[in-house]
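seq:
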Amino acid sequence: MSDWNQRSTPALTVLAEDHHAWFAGRTRAILKYLDAELGPQPAGQTRRVLDIGSGAGNMAHHLAHYGHVIGLDYVSRPLAVAQARALDVCQGAGDGLPFADNSFDLVALLDTVEHIPDEFGVFAECRRVLKPGGKVIVTVPAFMWLWSYNDEINAHQRRYTAPELRQKLEISGLRVTRLSYNNFFLFPLIAGLRLLRPEKPELASPHLTQDEEVYQVEMEPIPEPANSILHGVGWLEAELLQWVELPVGVSVICIAEKP
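struct:
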């Protein structure tokens, strides 16, 4: 199932990841939040968007609706893939951004800050480089009790609750405007699988290999018709996120603003 051309914010292009239900569901939620809080880039204006932890640029074609996207990643391997895709990227650390103060309209931290030991350093840097009124969108994994081997091979430092993420962003001088759990409908299934999962499943990770061709963690494929069914579930949840805060989920999604 592929319905990217039917959304209010259509994709400029479609990558293989866009067909995977987990990536697609997360992207729909992100775009619903950004459409509500920011809207598409106005004609005649040039917004600047910073994608921290951009990897190979898998979200650049979606974030490009909101402005010119600059990707930044600490690891060089995915940046080579992004450059081959003709994306504007550079190497650097999220807690020491190589950009001037007040220089971005939007910062994206999409499943990134949980990898970085100094989370407050990252949030402070986001605030520094944002223009007044600029937005940061954050997605993170939820609940430490869901910790699994998948977190370990991805070098995660932590998982979050929604109140914890709100508190840490506000301590960093950012005002939370939207906050919810995500993957609400899948929570019972995923929580059950996480608790029953073997210690070390066969998952690929750039943290476990020196293969230069590996640039991101491989998501486990979802067979049909399950993948299409989960696309529908993700679509329904994204629609709900326009109106309500979901009480539980496998992830947390948030938008905060620089006052």
